[in-house]
Amino acid sequence: MADNSSVNNTVSDATGKSMSWWKILLPVLIGLSVVAWLFWRDARSQDLGAELRAISFTPYVVGCIALAWLFMIGRDFGLSWRFRALTDRQLSWKQAIKVNCLCEFTSCITPSAVGGSSLGMVFLNREGIELGRATTLMLTTLFLDEFFFVVSCPIVVLITPAGELFNSGGTTFQAGLQLTFWIVYACITAWTALLFFGIILWPKGISSLIKRLFRLRWLNRWQQQANDLAANMVATAAALRSKPKRFWLETFGGTALSWTSRYLVVNALFLAFVPQADPDQWLILARQFVVWVVLMVSPTPGGSGLSEWLFTEFYGSLIPTAALALIMAIFWRIISYYVYLIIGAVLVPRWLRDSFSRSRKSSGKQAVKS
Predict the structure, then answer these.
(1) Tens digit of pLDDT for each residue in 233-273?
(2) CA 118 to CA 11: how far, in whole Å?
């Protein structure tokens, strides 16, 4: 087994390479480019300047925007609470909040289809969680997130009036969005089923199946990654087997709180900018489930560009003008996305300095001992 100093150096190198400054600037440039294009497109039919001047930041509007920020705080609270529960309170609230912000930052600078939580085990390790256990914990968070989608989406579809959930934009957009949603949902369901059997019901059997499957010639290029996944599933199953019901209620409660709070940001923005239209608040919430499922396959970092466009197209039928829809999309992305880029840009350099400092101290102690 590698000593702690070699593990620390490997982790620090990997983290440094993953957080280059161009990866922070790229999603910003993509997002701003799409926003500029949408402004240019809508400027031909809408007076955006007039729309901006028409917005009156009354105490009511400011209060609703503050409510949107409060919902994002609720999201962070839910995820930090979940980290605390997963580590059996080993992490303090301050540590849990820091790990959550760092995980969200990496999600912002990596494609949504890839996922940014892969470095979560590194962040947990730096807060005192043993690396193997940290990997187990991040696999558990992945399962909880996917399980929430698998359970909640059918409920949302059944409760929402038929024809209203995807009824937005032209027929081509509507059909494409609906098809994408169900394909992605089917993939999420299959992946969640694999995780459920792999870490809950039948870990050794699923582990053996994965290893055998990836020995096939056309899959063996991913054999090492598959073997790592199989080993992590067995380790996760062993760690979770003795957990009481309270553990599952608490971790899933934190998961549900975080995702629902994230969705409610858009409801608050509708209350702020479209109060006169009195849109169906449930429909606004239900459409957020569709938005986030579709964004899971975004090829851009943090869904930048695609998110702004999808918001204006999908919610456009509920907003009086295209210009106002774009303005609301910008507010939505500032609150739910760009703020984490700023937080990450502040936290990560300091975090990396601390990491390298710890690595040097650890190396020095090893040298003294030898």
Answers:
(1) 898 898 888 889 999 999 999 999 999 999 999 999 999 99
(2) 12
Q: pLDDT band at 303, cuts 50/70/90?
A: confident
Q: How far apart are CA 213 and CA 57, in angstroms?
A: 59
- 79 within 8 A of 325, measured Cβ to Cβ: no
pTM of the model: 0.85
- How far apart CA 37 and CA 52 sit, in angstroms, is 17
Contacts of residue 92, defined as CB under 8 A and 6 or more positions apart, other chains included, come to none
- Sign for the pseudo-dihedral over CA of 223, 231, 194, 105: negative
Q: Percent of the chain having pLDDT more than 70?
A: 82
The answer for residues whose C-beta is within 8 angstroms of residue 212's C-beta and 6 or more apart is none
End-to-end CA distance of the chain: 17
Q: What is the 3-state secondary structure (H, E, C) of 330-349?
A: HHHHHHHHHHHHHHHHHHHH
Instruction: Please name the amino acid found at residue 170.
Output: G
Average pLDDT of span 39-67: 77
With CA atoms as reference, report the closest residue to 52 among 66, 63, 42, 67.
42
Using alpha carbons, select from 63, 87, 46, 44 the residue that is nearest to residue 275.
Answer: 63
pLDDT at 368: 47
Strand partners, 111: 301
| Nearest alpha carbon to residue 116 among 304, 344, 301 | 301
CA separation for the pair 203, 199 (Å, rounded): 5
The C-alpha angle 196, 197, 203, rounded to 5 degrees, equals 120
- Alpha carbons 105 and 352: distance in angstroms, whole number: 14
